[in-house]
Amino acid sequence: MSKKYDAIIIGGGHNGLTTGAYLAKAGLKTLILERRYLVGGATVSEELYPGFKYTVCSYVISMLRPEVIRELELPKYGLEILPLEGLFAPTADGDYLALWNDHSKTREEIKRHCLQDADAYDEFGLMLYHMAFAVKPILAMIPPDITSPTLSDLRNLGRLKKHIQQLGSEKFYMLSKLMTMSSADLLDEWFETDILKALFAFSSIIGTLNGPRSPGSAYVLLHHFMGEQDGQYGAWGFHKGGTGGLSQAIANAARHLGAEIRCNASVSDVISQNGRAAGVALDSGEEIYADIVVSSLDPRQTFLKLVDPKQLPGDFVDAIGNYKFRGSSGKVNLALDGLPEFTAMPDPSMLRANVELCISMDYLERAFDDAKYGNFSKQPFMDILIPSMFDPTMAPPGKHVMSIFVQYAPYELNGGWNDEQRDAFGDAVIDTLAEFAPNIKDLIVHRQVLTPWDMEREFGLTEGNIFHGELTLDQVFFFRPVPGWAKYRTPLRNYYLCGSGVHPGGGITSAPGRLAALEILKDLKK
């Protein structure tokens, strides 16, 4: 019989690694099981073409919680985040708008388009800061069960009420609007310049099958703004060596704290005994036992694949079945023989910023229209990064890698995804990019195209959803994943959930992993 552990973590993504690190730090004999050959889940870097390292799925970092960095001492274990220099967005008429980390430089750039918008930009940024400050305590808060709150829930709700009351009525009303309205309506209230509105609006559609004019999209904008680098909200960075370097840093911390990590170890079932989780069975047939089992997989896999649904309450199974994934994102990674030349870009050094092909609000909405009716966008939104511009380890000298995040590529594609459709989607991305960087096709020496279908098969993301489920208002806080089960516990005793399918949701935050670990340790103390 194999040795027994205190805790087994299913999945070595960044949240699973975080939970494992915290449990090991508390003295638990912890085993982390990852089905792929390397840890990281969708937060990985891989050399898929000789000499070129891709940030395969996730690619930028901003939302990693400062308390996780501090408590796990991640800089000691390899955490090294390089700041991005801003955003560059070409327009349909050959002009551009750039937002830089240098505030005065950004103001002058916006003035070039609209004097009033330069003043509104400062006011809007201050408003988002206040809204992020208002929501920040929720990110570190265990979601209460509002139908039967515990004493601890009531205390937390009391503290949250006091915090909200301190905002004042004006900020409270603005927060209420942000949680419900569309990003298009919100931005129309603040700005006149279409490309400036589009630059803000693109963060409201990432990872959702919604457009900028969809109600609730303003909250997704705020969700992405809540990330911070060195205390600065809305600032983005790139991990040296790609996001896989972040996963390795957390894994290094977990190992140092005593956790054991096994790769090529795919879990087929959770073993249960008398209504409680008792271990896991691997695809190889090996059984491993533990007092606690924690899944960092998404809710559908956690409850409908690894567990016999008959062991769970019927209403709970129905609720998980109704949980929305609706993957909508694709990724194209390119190995390049040189630098692309954007016709609107006056200085190639500007490629140290993210290039956003968002063009206009109508452009974003039309891209969504394609997906709404089951097609990938003919002219998609793209968030483009060239990591080798500031990290030369990513490509050979004089060569470059390009990371392209794409909206929209719906999981439920008309006719279904296959190799031919994947190639057609990749062609649409490159053809659209070539309209703004005409030399791009001559530079490509290798390309990787990922559809939601590929993300599901390769990385275990149900329907290819990068957030383990949509971040809509009916699926956040105490609704995530379902009402009554938002505290990381599950109907199967000693079985916990620690991935992005629980509060506070998706993105590279490590917050679900940390909060789940704290709740597990709280239960153990009892």
Structural account:
It contains 17 helices and 20 strands. The protein has 526 residues and is an alpha/beta fold. Strands 1, 2, 11, 12, 13, 14 and 20 form a 7-stranded mixed sheet that branches. α1 packs parallel to α17. The longest helix is centred in the first third of the chain and has 25 residues, at 115-139. The mean pLDDT is 93.
The CATH topology of the domain at 5-80 and 242-323 and 468-525 is given as FAD/NAD(P)-binding domain
Based on CA atoms alone, the radius of gyration comes out at: 23 Å
Average pLDDT metric: 93
Helix-residue proportion: 25-40%
CATH class of the domain at 5-80 and 242-323 and 468-525: Alpha Beta
Q: Low-confidence spans: pLDDT under 50, at least 5 residues? A: none
Question: TL;DR?
Answer:
Helices cover 35% and strands 19% of the residues. The protein is of the alpha/beta class.
Q: Topology, pairings included?
A:
Layout (H helix, E strand, L loop, with lengths): L4 E6 L3 H12 L4 E4 L11 E5 L2 E4 L10 H6 L9 E3 L2 E5 L5 E5 L2 H9 L3 H25 L11 H15 L3 H12 L2 H6 L5 H8 L15 H9 L2 E2 L2 E2 L3 E3 L4 H13 L3 E3 L4 E7 L2 E7 L4 E9 L3 H7 L8 H9 L6 E8 L17 E4 L3 H12 L8 E5 L14 E8 L11 H16 L5 H4 E7 L1 H8 L35 E3 L13 H15 L1
Parallel strand pairs: 1-2, 1-14, 2-11, 6-16, 14-20
Antiparallel strand pairs: 3-4, 5-10, 6-7, 8-9, 12-13, 13-14, 15-18, 15-19, 16-17, 17-18
Helix pairs in contact: 1-10, 1-17, 3-4, 6-9
